[in-house]
Description:
223 residues; Arc Repressor Mutant, subunit A; 0% strand; TetR/AcrR family transcriptional regulator; DNA-binding; Tetracycline Repressor, domain 2; single chain
Amino acid sequence: MTTAPPTPLGKKPTRAKLERTNDPERTTADIIEIATREFAEKGLAGARIDVIAEATRTSKRMIYYYFGSKEALYRAVLEQSYSRIRTIEAQLHLEDLAPEPALRKLVEFTVDYQLANPDFIRLVMNENIHRGEFLAQSKSIQQLNVPAIDAVRAVYERGVAAKVFRAGIDPVDLHMSISALSFFNVSNRHTFSLIFKRDLDSRSALAARRDAIAEMMVRYVRL
Length: 223
């Protein structure tokens, strides 16, 4: 049974706070949602717990009650962000498609997901600044990435067996190449757009770029 966090002496909790206290899953989900934006925009060092508390109508004390520390909250945000993309990937049903369409679907999903979730890109960039320190502390994130590689491997090996993909490609390297192209499409689009005077945010430009990335990856593995 989950106990409610302590209320500061002399203060009565508001009705909204009482409702949140009695629904710890909703409370922690709200905190993680707001914390995701705060950490994505400002990084671990710049993010402020009081800002997160105010936005979620909770208190710093409650956040520490649920997560223990700012670093632990940051780690929970990373875990939730990786869990979300991996959960959706698992629902693509790539095994129902022939190898080449399956690979295209995986690439297009990765491009679309990262474009629609720039906070995920910023979190990954921030974690790289920390040299993966907090990701390394999370066993769940490391376990989450195993199915992602297995999915790429399964599609690729089916393609090799069907003699449509060439042999000798490392699935981890293939996954990295898909991620790199999709990642750059979000992380560098503002600077790239300014330098080369391109409108990269138009619907037609986004669709063309997604198609180009998918085509590059298919041609890379094609026999």
